[in-house]
Each structure stands twice: as C-alpha cells, then as structure tokens.
Amino acid sequence: MTGTGQRVRTRHRFGVAGPEAAGVDRRAGEPGARGAAALAGRVGRWTAVWYLFAVLLVLLAWEIAIVVGGTPDYLLPTPTQVAKAFDTYHQPLLHHSWFTLKEILLGFAVAVAAGMLIAVPIAFSRTVERVAYPLIVMTQAVPKVALGPLFIVWFGFGLETDVIIAVSVAIFPVIVNTALGLTSIDPDLVRLGRSMGGSRMRLFWLVRLPTALPSIFAGLKVAVTFAVIGAVVGEFIVGGSGLGYLTLSASGNQNVPLLFASVIALALIGVLFYAAIDLAERVVLRHHPQSGNRG
Amino acid sequence: MTGTAKRPPTTSAGLPLRVEGLGKTFRSARGAAVRALDGIDLTIGAGEFVSILGPSGCGKSTLLAILAGLDTATDGTASVGGRPVTAPLVDAGVMFQRDLLLDWHTCEDNILMQFRMRGLATAPYRDRARELLALVGMEHAAQRYPRELSGGMRQRVAICRALVHEPPLLFLDEPFGALDALTRENLNTELAALTAHSGATVVFVTHGIDEAVFLGDRAVVMSARPGRVIADVAIDLPVPRGPQVRELPQFTAYTARLRKLLAHEVQAVAVEGARS
Questions:
Q1: Which residue of B has its CA nearest to A34?
Q2: What is the mean pLDDT of chain A?
Q3: I want to staple A255 with a disulfide (CB 3.0 to 4.6 A). Which of A221, A222, A250, B203 is the partner?
Q4: CATH architecture for the domain at B17-80+168-275
Q5: Which residues form the domain of A46?
Q6: Is there a contact between A283 and A271 (Cβ–Cβ < 8 Å)?
C-alpha cells in the first residue's frame, strides 16, 4: 500500500522552539518517535554525563585561573568559596528561594489564566482584536521597571507587588501565542466540524484548542522565563525578601561568594520551571506532529 | 484490497438534490468582484453518483460547499430533499482533499468524531467504526495514530469517518487529489463498492477524468470561471464497478469525450491567465 504523505506546513511564527521545528519530516512507521524516544535521547544517561563533565571542566578551569592568576576574591571568588557560601548561608538562601519560587509560581499562574482569558475573545472577534491589540502593544512598550514605583504605591512593599510585575511581563507571550494558535486553524477543518453538526463550543474544545496547544506551549515557555525576570526585577525595587533582594544586599556587603550563590540558586529555579513546562509539553503533545504539520 | 466480499454497511436511502439558477460572486483580496459560479441548474436524483469535472478554479468546490450548506450562494437556490439549504447539512458525509484527521486521536476515535461533534456517546458506534475500517482493509489500524499511516491509509480513515453515521448524502471534494495513481485507483474501487451499497446520493468533485467516469453515474462538466454547466454526460457502465471496467472500450470512449470537453476549457483558462 503506497501513498504520499500529503502535508500542509502551517506557519508557526512563534514556532515550536528548537531546531526540530525547522522541518523534520516524520514518515509513517515511526511510531511514538516524539514521546519516549525523544525524552530518552535528550536526557539520556550519556548526555547527562557529558553535561556534568563540561560543568566540572569549567569549574576546574575557573578555580585554577583564580589560584594561579591571583584575582582578588572580593571580585571573583573560587568555586570552592561559592560552595562554602552555600553551606554558610543555606538558611537565608532557602528562605529567599522559597519566597522567589512562590512569586514565580503565582505570577506565572495568574499570567497564564488571565492571558488565555484575554486571548480567547481576541481570537474569536475581529473587533475585539482591533481594539485590544493596540492596547496590549502599548502596555507592552512601557518598561515594567519604570512601573515598579507605581505598583509599590498601589500594592505596597509585599509579595503582591513582585507578583504583579511578574504577571505584567509574562502575560504578553501567553496572549499572543494563544490567540495565534487559536486562529491558525485550517478553515477546512472548521467546515468539516460544522458539517458534523459541531457547535462553536464543541469545535473549540474538540478541535481549536487541541490544535492551538503547540503554539500555546511555546508561549508558556517564554512566559515562565519572563516570570522569573519579572519576580527578580520586583525584588530589586521592592526589597526585603527574595533572591533578587539577597543578591542586591550581598553586593552591598561586598559578599561576592553569597552573591554568586544567590544568582546560581536563581538560575536553578529558572531551569526547574522551564524543565517542568517542557516535560508537560512532551506529555500533552505526545501525539502532535513536531513541526505543526497537519495532514 | 476491496471490501466487496464482506457485508457492506446498510444505509438509509439517498436524498435528491436540486440546484436552480445558482450563482456566486465574491470579493477578491484586492476588492474586485469575482464571479465564481453562474446560472447553475442541476438535478441529482436520490442515490445518484454525480462526478463534477472542471478546470482548476472553476468554482466546483464552491458549488459543493454551497450544496453542503458550508457556503452561501449569491443568487439562485439549492435544495435537498425539497428543503432549501440554509445551514450546514448535518446528515451529510464530507471529505476534502486533505484527510483532516486529528493527530491526537487514534483512527477509531477520529471516525467517532462524527458523534462527539454531535454531542452523542461514542460507545454504541465503536463496532460500526471497526466494521468500516475492516471494509477498507484497515482493521489493524483502529488504535493507531494518523501520523503512523501513509496518505492513502489516512484517506481511507477519512472515508470511514464520512460514512460512519450512515449519511443519505456524500460530498467529496477531490478526496484523492493528493494521492499517487495506484493508491488512487485502489481507493476508487473501494469507494465504488462502499457507495454502491450505501444508497447515498454522492456529489464527487474532481479533476481526474478517469475517476469521474469510473465512479459516476453521470459526469457534469463545468466551464472555466465563471463556472457554468457545459455538459452533462450519463455514464452507462456495468455496476458494481471493479478494476476491469477501466479496460472496457466504452470507458475509454467516455474519458476521450470528457477530455475533449475539458481541453477546450483548460485552454480558456490558459488564455485568461496569459492576459492577466
């Protein structure tokens, strides 16, 4: 039985991240290539070993460079000193990490919920789109750091202000990618659904939303990194709590090892969130073709 | 690979179609008015299989969409079973050139979309979906995902989806246009067997002359834009149609005649294209 795999390549301007989006042709008889196999390939044992090796190599070179080169440790500490800082300051590090983690989680959750609620009417009404897009673009053009002091006046010196800043940064990619995903559906698919007696509601849940998922996930990945940035920016302005504040205060005290430890903790949190979304994407989209192909 | 040996699905009898003075004008992207269809009169009897042939862009797909209630006419009327078409016909099975299978559902669940879209429970129809898959030689694929299948296999699943709710009408818009010649002929044979027994009225849009003759009880030839009916040829070939029909001298005579009619229209398109 022969057959040409007819495929329509839909444009994904905010494409499914990664080089595979460039157009890997998946042939028939390659079942489940995306799911388990891809996962095993990416974080397989040997890949992990190579990563570890590379990191150790950099750390070793760093240590040697400082010891041999004689850079003063108040400018650049050795990895050993940073490790010691993790031990000495584990309590404040944990405390502030937890605070920042909460902010990112809250900020991301609110941005996703609100962003999707805003995106749906934009996707379904030309009028709403025409009115809403200029407003969104305008608010997006305002640097959020500049709005920080205003948010402090409105929401005080607490977690709320940091979360609001995180939301204001992270919401944009959610809105844009969700609206894009919901509108970039094959019109014939809508016609087919209507010929099956599908109401607008059922078409949305059974066809439109699942079709939009790859685009939505691409947006979520950007949003989660933006939420991290937003939270830290908030902490810089508000002060008092969070890894952003800890970094700032370590800088003020010339405690460079703690500063490094704090930034590393922040990076780990960022990677953790990104990996969580990535994993969710692999699970949810395990049957979706990789590059948005629809046959 | 045919399902002729097995028990075919039983279906309610087809519905007659009637088109009177149908025309369609739409606005192009540049704002110019384009006349796509003009003065189409067509009567299709219950259970008849009508092939609609025409050069690319002659509006035959638009005509099909209007019949299926998925598009609206600018003038004239289309009616099904005596009632004017004003909304999407839900008692029809529709197929397009692309199979439009949902990648995240198994083949079986794709077929059962017919019922999910209607808000019906799918469980009572599962057996019927499997039965149809078996008729097109795809019983092994019920639990497989579309991307694991070839184009021809995917289109077979799409056929099952169009037939699973036993529709009295079938609207097929170049369903095999993207397939290779051999797969196309196999699918023609399978479709002939399925529709012969279903009793549904079929409107089959194509630009394949061979398959128009092979499948149709009639072949309607349309002109270049604006699309008008320029010939209506009754095709008198033995039923049920198997691959051997293609070797009959009458078959060749029909295709030759239609090819001649079409060549003239294709030429008109070429002249038009050269001018603009």
A1: B147
A2: 83
A3: A250
A4: 3-Layer(aba) Sandwich (3.40)
A5: 32-71
A6: no
